[in-house]
């Protein structure tokens, strides 16, 4: 997995980083905690520019937040909950997730968008209640960009500082990442089957 992601970033360069971070926000196939340190490692080797890596990662993260923001703004909380109940199983997004993110947003105000970008569990979801509340786009963009910039910089710096040690870490990380990926797939399938069984019971 390590070699595959590294190769993808090497071939795609900054555009590859941007696309991976965009996808990580829309539907997280690979977490940013893997993408950005790898990109930072390549920057330390001189294959990429550190600032370019951070900017590409930040922009990709910001663009990935926009679909959720506009979904919240267009559909509203009630319809987002219904959509989550109907289609959320494919993204492992539940109506409860929407409600909890909305509650968190109401409790912490618009600054929740900034701090939310620094919390892995709600980095993506926090954009939904921001849209539902019709948070002014400039404010949303400012907080999202600021939070994403800090997050991507820290992760990129971690990979950059490891530098020569990263390949040594990678020998341990690669089998571990495969196990983590397998667990993620199994949890996804479990939640998918569990949701389907609940719907079958309701229909029955």
TrEMBL record:
Pfam families: VTT_dom
Transmembrane portions of the chain: 12-30, 50-71, 140-163, 175-193
Protein's UniProt name: DedA family protein
Intracellular or extracellular location(s): Cell membrane
Keyword S-adenosyl-L-methionine listed: no
The species this protein was found in: Pseudomonas luteola
Keywords annotated in UniProt: Cell membrane, Membrane, Transmembrane, Transmembrane helix
InterPro entries to which the protein is assigned, alphabetical: DedA_domain, VTT_dom
Membrane topology: Multi-pass membrane protein
Keyword Transport: no
GO cellular component, one term: plasma membrane
Domain VTT: 30-160
Predominant place of localization: membrane
Domain of life: Bacteria
């Amino acid at each position: 997995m390590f070699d595959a992601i590294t190769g993808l970033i090497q071939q795609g360069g900054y555009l590859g980083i941007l696309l991976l971070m965009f996808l990580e926000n829309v539907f997280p196939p690979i977490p940013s905690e893997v993408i950005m340190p790898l990109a930072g490692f390549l920057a330390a080797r001189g294959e990429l520019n550190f600032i370019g890596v951070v900017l590409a990662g930040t922009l990709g993260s910001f663009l990935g937040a926009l679909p959720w923001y506009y979904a919240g703004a267009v559909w509203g909380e009630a319809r987002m909950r219904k959509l989550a109940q109907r289609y959320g199983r494919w993204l492992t997004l539940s109506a409860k997730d929407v409600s909890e993110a909305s509650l968190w947003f109401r409790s912490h105000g618009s600054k929740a968008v900034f701090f939310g970008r620094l919390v892995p569990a709600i980095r993506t979801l926090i954009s939904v209640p921001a849209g539902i509340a019709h948070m002014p786009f400039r404010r949303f963009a400012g907080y999202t960009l600021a939070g994403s910039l800090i997050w991507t910089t820290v992760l990129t710096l971690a990979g950059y500082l490891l530098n020569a040690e990263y390949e040594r870490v990678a020998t341990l990380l690669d089998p571990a990442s495969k196990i983590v990926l397998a667990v993620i797939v199994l949890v996804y399938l479990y939640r998918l089957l569990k949701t389907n069984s609940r719907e079958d019971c309701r229909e029955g």
